[in-house]
Amino acid sequence: MISFPKPDDLPDSQRIVITGIGLTSPNGNTVSDFRESLLNGKSGVQEYEIRYFGKTIAGICDFDVRLHQTRKDLRRGTRAGSVGCYCANEAILDSGIDWENTDSSRVGIYVGVTEHGNVETESEIHEIRGFDYDTKVWSHHHNPRTVANNPAGEIALNLSITGPHYTIGAACAAGNAGLIQGLQMLRLNECDLALAGGVSESIHTFGIFAGFASQGALASHDDPTKASRPFDKNRNGIVVSEGGCIYTLERLEDAKARGARIYGEIVGYAINTDATDFVLPNPERQAQCINMALNRACLNAEDIDIVSTHATGTGMGDALECDAIRRVFGNSTKTHINNAKSFIGHTMGAAGALELAGNLVAFDDKVVHPTINLDDLDPECELPGLVKNEAREIETIDYILNNSFGMLGINSATVIRKM
After folding, report:
1. Domains with residue ranges and CATH for the chain
2. Cβ pair 106, 185 in contact under 8 A
């Protein structure tokens, strides 16, 4: 493997820290509310119905869409853009940065998505059908709503940001990919402040429900709050959810200069590809990705205190990720392992960023949130450090590893250090 300098040996201009968090999740719209739900076992999954597909379950966000957008913004824009605008504004407020005196040309926006444009296309086809497919009724907002850069572009318009904006398509690894892109652009001096993370509007397209159902991978349960059950022997699929999480990332020297509160430092990251299957994960490549992130951070596996797993509640997916974790961590009981999807379902492009946010507060309170709905652990998912159903307090938490994997074999991992 390539040898990397230790994070402490890097100049402060190359060390990237998290100074603000803005999020919306199915069980909380602030970091503190989200964290409280994770510690108290509060699920955000509920009954849901969508046209053509019918009754199902989903993780649904309930944030104030008018807090940072006008009615006109909402008419022209998208749900993903609205989620992004809410999270970006809240992240800036949380960071305490002097926004009025920030050079907007030096702010970059790097937002990960799983997919985009399906919601608008489905809705407009549904509408045009009622007019005998007369294209005169087709929305003139269609193209700007569905272009791939839309969520990041809506944030730029909302906040009058004139620096670079990218929407990063990385399947369900996209939240981590947004963070990694933001870090790299700061190190390359392409921006001075990065708004980075991921968003998802997935529950508003019937196609995603139909697609997972046709794969036999859509979760069901009489009690919606118990439907998302990673690692459980009776897990039966994914709960589709919406959500978002955007971080403010800064160089350490800039954060220090303004006396910013720092949530943590990104010290390791990696992205690689399975190149073996459209859907089925490859545990060898996942383990390789984790080891690459550890290597970049100059850490050994035993240095990691919390592993935030990707596990979605599918039979093969969960078991194969556990295989990958064993390859890296062996039978270690020092490393604690948890999962946030058991609370909120799978927020797709937002998952990596949102699930990391649920663990970052552990640097301060020294509590590892659990995986809930683990009534009957699948032997194939047995991990010595798995935190089941009840939160666990531990002596020290210095490093968090955040796994996030996606279809077509994309794998990502980030390592965050307490500051």
Report:
1. 17-257 (3.40.47.10), 268-417 (3.40.47.10)
2. no
